[in-house]
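re: that chain from earlier
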Amino acid sequence: MSPAVQIALAVALVVVVFLLLLVLRRDRPRDLVAPDRPAGGQAEVLRLIHAGRRVEAVKLLREQTGLSLLEAKQAVDALAAGGSWSPGPPAPGKGVDDAVRAEAARLLHRGEKIQAIKVVREHTHMSLADAKRYVEGL
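^ sequence. v structure.
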C-alpha cells in the first residue's frame, strides 16, 4: 500500500471517530444542577430549553429557585449552550421560619436592627449582606 493511501485511510478513520464521539455526546443528557441536589422539575427546564421555549424555561427556573430574572436567563443561556449550571445557596428569605421572622420584625420595630440581623443570621446561616437585606425588607 502506498504512503498516500495509508495517510488517506488514517485521516478517514480519525474523521469517523470524531463524528461518532459528537453523536454520542449530543445524545447524553445534561445535568441541570449538582448531583447531590434533588431532580424535581429540572428535567422539565431542560426539556423546555431543548424545545426552543427559553422564556418558559426561565419562568419555570425562577419559580423553582427564586432566582432573579437576570440570573435565571443566564442559567438558561448556559444550559442551552451546552454548559452546566448549579444553584447557589437559597435566595434570601427562603427557609426563614415564622418564629424567626416574627422575632426579627419585633426587634426591628423596637429599633434594634442589628440584633434583628443577628437573629436572622443565627437561624438561617445567611451572609451578613443577605440577612441585612432580608431584615430591611420586613
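The CA atoms of residues 19 and 104 lie 60 Å apart.
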